[in-house]
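Hi support team,

I'm opening this ticket because the web form for multi-chain structure prediction keeps timing out on my end. I have pasted the exact lines I submitted so you can reproduce it. The total is 1064 residues across two entries, so I didn't expect it to be a heavy job. Is there a limit I'm missing, or should I split the entries? Thanks in advance, R.K.
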Amino acid sequence: MTNQHQKEQAPGRSWAPDPASALPLHRQISNYFMDKIRSGAWPPGMRLAPQRELCRQLGVNRSTVVTALGELSALGLIEGRRGGGTRVADLRAAAADGAVSYGDGVATSGSRAASYGNGMATSGDGAGTDILPVQPAGSWNSYVEEGVHYPNLPTVQDINRLEYEQGLIRLGTGEPSPGLLPGEAMTRVLAELSRQTLPPLSYEAPLGSLGLRRAVSSELAKNGIQADPDSILITSGALQGLQLIAVGLLPRGSTILLEKPSYLYSIHAFQSAGVKFNGLPMDEHGLLTDRLAREARRTKAAMLYSIPSFHNPTGILMDAQRRQKLMGVTGGLGLPILEDGAYQELWLDTPPPLPLKALDREGRVLHLGTLSKSASPGLRIGWIVGPEPVVRRLADIKMQTDYGASSLSQLAAARWLEGGYHEEHLQRLRARLRQRRDAALALLQRHFAGLAAWNVPAGGFYIWLALDKPVPLRTLFRAAHKAGLLLNTGDLYDRSDSRHLRLSYVYASPAELETGLPILAGLIRKLQRPGS
Amino acid sequence: MTNQHQKEQAPGRSWAPDPASALPLHRQISNYFMDKIRSGAWPPGMRLAPQRELCRQLGVNRSTVVTALGELSALGLIEGRRGGGTRVADLRAAAADGAVSYGDGVATSGSRAASYGNGMATSGDGAGTDILPVQPAGSWNSYVEEGVHYPNLPTVQDINRLEYEQGLIRLGTGEPSPGLLPGEAMTRVLAELSRQTLPPLSYEAPLGSLGLRRAVSSELAKNGIQADPDSILITSGALQGLQLIAVGLLPRGSTILLEKPSYLYSIHAFQSAGVKFNGLPMDEHGLLTDRLAREARRTKAAMLYSIPSFHNPTGILMDAQRRQKLMGVTGGLGLPILEDGAYQELWLDTPPPLPLKALDREGRVLHLGTLSKSASPGLRIGWIVGPEPVVRRLADIKMQTDYGASSLSQLAAARWLEGGYHEEHLQRLRARLRQRRDAALALLQRHFAGLAAWNVPAGGFYIWLALDKPVPLRTLFRAAHKAGLLLNTGDLYDRSDSRHLRLSYVYASPAELETGLPILAGLIRKLQRPGS
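Hello R.K., no limit was hit. The queue was backed up. Here is the completed structure from your submission:
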């Protein structure tokens, strides 16, 4: 199983030619491509990746790719267009022309193949770094670019994809590295669950399993939040909670206030639901409240979104006084608050002040929590705490969306919390994150003094690196990728930003940071050099 | 654990007063309500359920409820309005008036309480059957009725809620009863997984875990579908697949063709994305293709949605000839097809013809599958098979929605398929469903001859009961609920229907059907009687 899992970390595609096979590599490739095209998995009009990219993905050299493509071209299965790259041919059109011996196998490789191979060599090397296939096409072609939902930001799409590319040092990833996750303890949980016959894994109640809601309720009480199981909705991670709130509670065209920069700018949950953002500044104690009332009235704000504890991406911890102030100002306005508590329990030095929800006596705060940042992202278990009518409305939408989170995950999560595994894991995790944070800070001191400033996070995952001079962040991202680094640039969290990077000490190991940070510093210096 | 699970089947709320406590029942109730109100879980303006409903839910008699409400009223925490029911008072407004001794406990119960109790007795019994709390209110009030997403149909909301009410015979539920689910085999899967240390439960690749995609690929091959792991996207159940397609592929305002009636009419995934439906008639061999081309052109249809095998709700099996015809007609139009294969493997007599996806060489068919109908709904594992560019687009949206299905569920599902558990379970399940189907048909013969006609399903879950004369279905639904039956009425699947019921032999046991079907027949006869 461990082996299997490691395979899943492999980049991109599930197939590569087998050097040990009797069949030549180019023939293996053309056979594979032919299957893809004939089965419709690669529909007519779909653009193939540039040759250099194909070589990289398939682990073969250029001449092998050229030969394979030549064979496919000879069969009329693909066609190269000057400047337009290589595309899957429209077989029906070609068949109607009588030009293709469709269905013959790959036995012949005539002159078209040769000339095609040459053509490819001059036109096939676009600037794209896409993994194959690149362009949707065929009868689904236009749809892939349509639909109501926004596609992810290009940088986010790149990050989602490149996270599965091996060998990259991921300097900003907001997820604990596999080594920090509790493989053994989770195995003990499963063993415990399998000691007696499992309950049938039916659909759970709309709010989620009562067992897990009770366990979450006890957990919340430790943080000063009194919420009984009827006020708790189990979600598939906190992200789904945001999604449900976006589509379920907010009318199209409404505005929410939020910290700027914010994690929320990097996802499309709210924008896709037609919700507008109005970002407010922070200082080292958290969101500044002085402009809040004015902005709330001006924009007729529907809600305030805040990450008071160990803010993403800045790491800022809102202090107790600011929390009181915030509750007062928003209380006067009757402004609902969405409190994202994802990092709350991940304090490193001392526990944070009480969450906003613990200060709420009016049912004005919705509070989000998750097991993804500590126990296991892959459990996909989060929760929303709020007034019963609100969580019931959200539960109704959740039932329409996916019929609830996995019952198996809910069983395991309840056991995880009740069995004390969570508390035990958190203690160990905090100690390890403290070491990692301190190591990261020492490296920054060594390599970024005079180049940037940064905060000392008291918890959570992030260091917000503020460069002394702006750099073109998209260029930096690309240069870093070439140098083997994956970055979370500041423009993900504030579109107009050109001076920040989100660094994380939870994914890359201290050794990787030791390799990666000096490289990053070098790239930044180069880009900041006048005339570069 | 089994105990805990059984408790979760309990209706509605997680709390009821304890008759063994020294505290009187009414005081337990008023304390509980007070906590709810003071914590904001029940926000100002929220309407409480009618007294009769409160009695039912809390398991107490009327005078207990009246006393408890009287105490709360005396404290100014709730207010009764003639005709408007009872609502949570706005504490801030009340406090400003100086009318409330907020924070005092429940020690006094003055004259207001008494008069309130009386007032309630005359006005508190609305027609609603809602479980408390009914009406959202407070600062979230308006939002609960807004948002982009449509709320579920009232009947669907009723069904979702009443499914957790104990003692109801669920005549139409489309999910295997807990007794048909593989509790023991699933426990063996978990035990197998916990035999060695689990891989860390990180986020999976956007398409889902490679291990599970490989297992699904092998499974699909048994049904004639050639799809390698790169063409497969793992979803949190087939419903999420529909959701992703609705928001990810179809432009707002586009039209899809589908069978009428159809399951798709009962969910809001597509309507919420602004997609219109154009329903086409069926005969006993499946969707009629004669009007298809004309309608597709007239409506500029973006897609055809079909459930060719054991259609929901009619149970119809599209025969091989009709499948060929359908592929031909839609091929000529270049019309993409969304094939819902949820019931495909649940044949009872002989395997169904090849799925449409197996006939597709152009990448024109998206195929949906799921483990929810056989292995376990609670695993929340389904898949979409289609052209790579399409599944990659959907994967991108999925990453934005919930970061993928539970890794633990994916691990278990892969083991379930690879370990042969699935095939073994299917064989047993088919034998048991055959018996249940035959028992249901015999009961229909006994109680519905001369009242309705029905099909003999060759697979799947459903019998489509066609009443000889129309009845007001919403009235029938309510009358049935009072008589202890939960119905899936035909209007869920075709808004204009007044003559059909979806019956299912997979949830209610043969004994329950034996009790429930004659009651249903009686109710129908009564409603059809002239002048009723």
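A quick check on our side: The CA atoms of residues 454 and 465 of chain A lie 5 Å apart. Let us know if the file doesn't open in your viewer.
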